[in-house]
Amino acid sequence: MNILIIGSGGREHAIAWRLAKDAVHHTLFMAPGNAGTSAIATNLAIGAEDVAGIVAWARENRPDLVVVGPEAPLVKGVVDALAEVGIPAFGPCAAGARMEGSKQFAKDVMNAAGVPTGRAKVFTDPAAAKAALAEFGLPVVIKADGLAAGKGVVVAETTADAEAAIDDMLVANKFGAAGAEVLVEEFLDGEECSILAMTDGKEVVLLPSSQDHKRIFDGDKGPNTGGMGAYSPAPVVTDAMLPEIKERIIKPVVEELAKRGITYRGILYAGLMITPEGGKLAKSGSRVNVVEFNARFGDPETEAVLPRLDGDFATALLHAATGRLAQSDISVKPGSAATVIIASGGYPGAYEKGKVVAGLDAAAATGATVFHCGTKATPEGAIVTAGGRVFSVTGEGSTLREAVDAAYRAVDKIAFENSFCRRDIAHRAL
Ligand code: AMP
Ligand code: GLY
Prior knowledge:
It is built from 13 helices and 25 strands. With 430 residues, it is α+β, with helices and mostly antiparallel strands. The chain folds into four domains: 2-93, Rossmann fold, CATH 3.40.50; 120-186, Dna Ligase, domain 1 (2-Layer Sandwich); 188-332, ATP-grasp fold, B domain (D-amino Acid Aminotransferase, Chain A, domain 1, 2-Layer Sandwich); 336-411, Phosphoribosylglycinamide synthetase, C-terminal domain (Glycinamide Ribonucleotide Synthetase, Chain A, domain 4, Alpha-Beta Complex), CATH 3.90.600.10. The strands form seven sheets. Strands 12, 15, 20, 21, 24 and 25 form a six-stranded antiparallel sheet that branches. It has a five-stranded parallel sheet with strand order 3-2-1-4-5. It has a four-stranded antiparallel sheet with strand order 6-9-7-8, with helices on both faces.
């Protein structure tokens, strides 16, 4: 197949890499890709959010499939626009992408479908939001409704912190339109994990579970990031939970969306909170609750999950995009995978770019897989840093310990000025 992948991060490199592992050969294009993807695909000078540019290229070049990585083009309707010119695309239509783009919409769908999640109320008036805090207790979660680059959620331990978060969003407009509506939400106690579910709008196939590490420092300390590492499977999700997740969470959401006239195709990513035995149970009464939905593959979860998939990945994506998804298109390999992010010093705050990278061949020679997240090739052929998250390094093994060790063996070969990584990826499971 001829396949166009939209995006430029580690997730998109992993999608391209996994497609390149299919038994049949595919010709891959990236919009825009990065220095890593250029080894297996043709990078196009088209930005991931340039919907008009993407559609123009697709119309001219007629790819068999377009795979959308990030949420922004989904929310902008790239899948709808491609459908209009007859090109199948993996990812939800704009109406479906609202599951990620509007937390209020996602709550409404979950409540209508009876899906267990934190109780929440929506406010536009700061005084009314503050008056409601008492009924939620502490801690309490304050969320901007729209996309806020992962920064629109405050878990407030005190009423003063909750009120400050409400004022930031509703009075100071810190997140602009994304924060014009605010959710006050019940705090969910427990351990988080990610379930990526592939769906064609009817059938649902759960991909292996994973867990990411959102905080910058070891021990889950410091500010939130896009994700500093991931591993799969996540033992906090027991095999007994999987049918429940599929039947009580993913399928009811897909069915509720269908009732509303939305055929949801692509990945429905459920961020789940698993309350431990003896932990404080949510009002829903369930031990498994939805924290949020995303409308795409997770990053860096994808870099840990895709290496574990056997079967014809392109066929699975095409079948999901065209309403023909079957369980048999892909299967899961035994064993584990662990992904460590190498970041630029300073991330998630300000960081420098353009640092020359050494050791990539030595890292690859260890047998681990190095995905590029934020890199560029210079005209002289050197690889330089071009983002906060620079590499996603995935190790595999028959045990999680082996996978983690394999990842760090490769990580330790890669060097650039001020590089930084967490040293405790998968600590909860080890
Ligand atoms: P989100 O942007 O919705 O993924 O939220 C970011 C992070 O905030 C999540 O990964 C959780 O760690 C935390 N969070 C969000 N909602 C809740 C909740 N209801 N209870 C506890 N933690 C939450
Ligand atoms: N790893 C979290 C996300 O992709 O949103």
